[in-house]
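lol ok so funny story. i was supposed to be doing the assay writeup but got distracted and ended up predicting the structure for this chain instead. priorities right. anyway since i did it might as well share w the group, maybe its usefull for someone
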Amino acid sequence: VLQQAKKLIEYFNLCSKTDAWLDSISITLREKKDSEDSLLSIGQVEAALRQLESLELTLCTRDKENINSDIAVRLSEIVAEKNFGAQDARKRFPEVEGHLQKVQKQLQENRASLQEILSYQNFLRQANEQLNILRNKMKIVTDPAGFEPTNLKSKIKKHENFVADIEGVISTAENVSKEGSKYSKDSRGYEDVSRKVEDLDHLISGLQEACSAKTRRLNEIREYISWQRKADEFEKWIGDCEAEFSSDNYGTDSITVKQLLN
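and the output, tada:
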């Protein structure tokens, strides 16, 4: 009986120690969950995920050593020898297992939450990068100097290259916007993401319109310059004709007479 009592005490003590250790893990996870709002950078979130992975590894190792091995083996021995406390021992084992499952679930929830934060911060970083690129491109395409008629041929060629390059820029920005559009209303940072998506879409459409408007304007300037050049040539020709026809000597020889007849 004393031997049975000793085994029971050791078994219940081990269960209690395991519960206490699981409680400490649970408290740590809860504290980390409560401090998530202080994670302001991608690096901080990635560091928190690594800490969580380390904690998970420790939990898995202790799980195999304690619950699956030591506690389970002790329970089997107690049951096999028909220990007087076998029934209570059987009841205690599921409690420890349930505690472990609860902590494992808590760990999974923490990981999912951190991954959501990481996804949110990655989106903000990508969105801000694309917004800066789009704003810089908008400054270039709307620069008044680009509409001046001097060196027009070079400016038209430069704008054509700009338009070709901008297709890739817009495609990347559109992909980021689409990713942001996938966020549901209950997602972390939904309002911030929605504002970024609106800013992206607004700049994308604005840049496309600015490119089209500049293309039209440069073509108008080119057509005007071409017309002006032809008008100048025609005006010069008229002047030359007037000067020639108004000459007192015009028509006094056979050469000018033939010119008049022709």
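The radius of gyration is 41 Å. Helices lie at 2-34, 42-80, 86-141, 152-181, 190-245, 254-261.
back to the writeup now i swear
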